[in-house]
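Quick one: structure tokens for this chain, please?
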Amino acid sequence: MQNVRKRRGNDLHSTTGVSKQNVPERKRPTFHFDLWLCLTLQNWILDFGRPIAMIVLPLEWFPLNRPSAGDYFHMAYNVITPFLMLKLVERAHRPVSRTAVHLCIVTFVMGASIHLVGDSINHRLILSGYQLHLSVRENPIIKDLKPASLIDSFELLYYYDEHLGHLMWYIPFFIILLIYFSGCFSGSEDQQKIPVSGWLLLGPSSLYYWYLVTEGQITELFLLTFLAMLAMMVFQRRRGLGPDSNGSFLFYSFSVTVLLVSLWVAYLWNDPVLRNKYPGLFYVPEPWSYYTLHIRKSH
């Protein structure tokens, strides 16, 4: 009886083993189309669409002493973007430093929140005649304020909005992307191919990064990130590794962005008004400054 039971047990075990071997394993898709699509859509809608929503929607719906439609867009962006970036890091091909990512997420949310307040007031000033292509002290609605110390307050607001807020927002943003990129290298050629869905997303993604770099005035930060990615690729190539489909998508998006920013600068190279407002080492005018100077005036 014991021998019969052993035989039955062995037969059952062998049958189970065969059935497990015959079941094909489900391969997890290497290209994270769902996350890249969500990131691209929410970037265009919640970030690029913020000022457009404030211009298009009736002012009566959002009094000047209450949050506007763009402010609600910004609030949603401050929640959704960190969540999507955390999910992206979780799916990296290789493990990365979670501590560094979490610190960057905290700083990102704080910087984006500072920018939310400054940008909200800034767009209300635009409705009152504030001109983005001029400095704070040169603006007609501000230069004659009394007492004169009020102008210093508006310059402080501009500093929080355009400098401190942007730095605390974008530096951790690009560090997270760089950390994620460092975990996207693989030795398999099949995982390095970008699917058709990725090529279709490349254009909208690159165009958004162009807007982010120009409007955020972060050309130096973006170029440093791009060069760091390039150096990382060269180093990993020597080890026989290449970026997987996600890493290639991110690198090609940045490459196209460099081209778009270069064309934008060349187009506005001889504009005297914008040249006066952006006198730094990198002359990269903001799209909304171009809008208030050339497009808004013509209408």
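Strands lie at 185-186, 242-243.
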